[in-house]
């Protein structure tokens, strides 16, 4: 299966090179100070310039204002913006129009009551990231290594491309792909040896398992 893989929270050129060589379709750069995967705009520019052609560069932000997004987009060559906060549908549409880049909106799931948000955001975003809803009081909106009940997605489809995230690892991603019919998957903490530290062997194993799923 030609599953598209996004490796998020990359912080070194070496890890980006490994992700690209392994067959990742997207690499993600995190701009969120509370995250152990956070990168500065200056560092992100260098990382983005090292990404091989054909691999999409995604900037993850959390409730970022226009000034922050302006600074990121002015300095870093990007292919997509990922909004991972509490951005409203109107804000998603505003960002999409202002920057002229495809926008992926993350939506957290914990139960059936959260599914309506997927239907809503697909009307304004180019892609949807279906993630596990963070626990109450969590410092991070994603990258917590938590999964949701994949059965929530059975029989559902959306007009927009969507990506499965939340607690994925090299050990469970093939099952996740088979269980949800996901054509795209995203991983961050599931390929780390410590928070914010990517393991190149796990990156390779994850991509291989996702594509074999």
Structural write-up:
The chain is α/β, with parallel strands linked by helices. It has a single domain (4-212), classed as TIM Barrel, CATH 3.20.20.70. Helix content is 32%, strand content 21%. The protein has an eight-stranded parallel beta sheet. Helix 1 (13-22) packs parallel to helix 7. The longest helix has 13 residues, at 200-212. The radius of gyration is 16 Å and the shape is globular. The protein starts with a strand and ends with a helix. The mean pLDDT is 92.
Task: Kindly list the characteristics that best describe this protein.
globular; single chain; alpha/beta; 32% helix; two-stranded antiparallel sheet; 213 residues; 7 helices; TIM Barrel
At a glance:
By secondary structure, this protein is of the alpha/beta class. It is built from seven helices and ten strands. The mean pLDDT is 92.
Secondary structure elements and pairings:
Elements: E1 4-7, H1 13-22, E2 26-31, H2 41-49, E3 56-61, H3 66-75, E4 80-83, H4 89-99, E5 103-109, H5 115-121, E6 127-132, E7 162-164, H6 173-180, E8 184-187, E9 192-194, E10 197-198, H7 200-212
Parallel strand pairs: 1-2, 1-8, 2-3, 3-4, 4-5, 5-6, 6-7
Antiparallel strand pairs: 9-10
Give the total of beta strands. 10
The CATH architecture designation is: Alpha-Beta Barrel
Level-1 CATH class name: Alpha Beta
Fraction of residues in β-strands = 15-25%
Average pLDDT level: 92
């Amino acid at each position: 299966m030609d599953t598209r893989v996004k490796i998020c929270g990359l912080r070194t050129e070496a890890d980006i090179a490994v992700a690209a060589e392994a067959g990742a379709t997207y690499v993600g750069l995190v701009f969120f100070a509370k995250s152990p995967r956070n990168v500065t705009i200056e560092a992100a520019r260098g990382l983005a310039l090292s990404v091989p052609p054909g691999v999409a560069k995604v900037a993850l932000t959390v409730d970022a204002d226009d000034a922050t997004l302006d600074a990121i987009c002015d300095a870093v060559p990007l292919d997509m913006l990922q909004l991972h906060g509490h951005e409203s549908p109107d804000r998603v549409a505003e960002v999409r129009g202002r920057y002229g880049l495809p926008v992926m909106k993350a939506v957290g799931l914990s139960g059936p009551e959260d599914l309506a948000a997927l239907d809503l955001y697909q009307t304004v975003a180019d892609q949807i990231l279906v993630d596990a809803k963070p626990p109450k009081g969590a410092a991070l909106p994603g990258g917590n290594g938590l999964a949701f009940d994949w059965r929530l997605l059975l029989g559902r489809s959306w007009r927009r491309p969507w990506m499965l995230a939340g607690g994925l690892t090299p050990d469970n991603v093939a099952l996740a792909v088979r269980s949800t019919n996901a054509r795209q998957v995203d991983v961050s903490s599931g390929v780390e040896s410590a928070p914010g530290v990517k393991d190149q062997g796990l990156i390779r194993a994850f991509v291989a398992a996702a594509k074999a799923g």
